[in-house]
């Protein structure tokens, strides 16, 4: 006898609502610290408050929003501790990914394709999406399913990290990011593990210094 399960329709709607809100945050519609009101979101999306509430809980689990009883739900504004923790965790994951890519020497066509897209990015938000896509491609090339899942668990927060960065300094980001990622791709292709790890560490450090510098 099969177990009874509830219909999935409502859950599917909540997922769609979460996707819409997430996209709005990533497109700059809701800046870090912005309040997300259930009633307003439900009206804008043409749904009831139930799916919106579920969607906000999903986004809270991703670290993209925060719910507090006295403030309601707001888009996460990264603190100094958040930046440090996210940077250290990302470093640990990325070191393994880079080492695996260098050792496996896989086809890097997808990584190269993302670098090419960076040259055509129309604005900061498109560049951020390309930036994330580059790192997605690195994790895919590593060929380690659980490592890729660990990256996906923090991906939304890294996206928020990059949005916070361009809010502080967009001109330097747009100007330097394509060449910076081209250099990273070339390091992976060259097969020198130590050199590649160092370049990726410098890449992360540049981004973190922008955010940390804003707090002093």
Describe the structure.
With 216 residues, this protein is mostly helical. The protein is 73% helix and 5% strand. It has helices at residues 9-26, 38-45, 49-61, 80-104, 109-118, 124-142, 145-168, 171-190, 193-213, and strands at 35-36, 65-68, 72-75. Strands 1-3-2 form a three-stranded antiparallel β-sheet. α2 crosses α3, α6 packs antiparallel against α7 (145-168) and α7 packs across α9 (193-213). Residues 5-10 have low confidence and may be disordered. It holds the Pfam family FCD. InterPro entries: GntR_C, TF_FadR/GntR_C, Tscrpt_reg_HTH_GntR, WH-like_DNA-bd_sf, WH_DNA-bd_sf. Residues 11-78 form the HTH gntR-type domain. It comes from Amycolatopsis plumensis.
Oligomeric state of this protein: single chain
Q: What strand line-up does the widest sheet have?
A: 1-3-2
How far is the N terminus from the C terminus?
63 Å
Summed up, the helix count is: 9
Instruction: Specify the overall morphology.
Output: elongated
Mean pLDDT score, rounded? 89
Strand proportion: under 5%
Q: Sheet bearing the most strands, described?
A: 3 strands, antiparallel
Low-confidence stretches: 5-10
Measured as a percent range, the helix fraction is: over 70%
Briefly note the structural class of the backbone.
mainly alpha
N to C succession of SSEs: HEHHEEHHHHHH
DSSP, total strands = 3
Computed over alpha carbons, the radius of gyration is: 19 Å
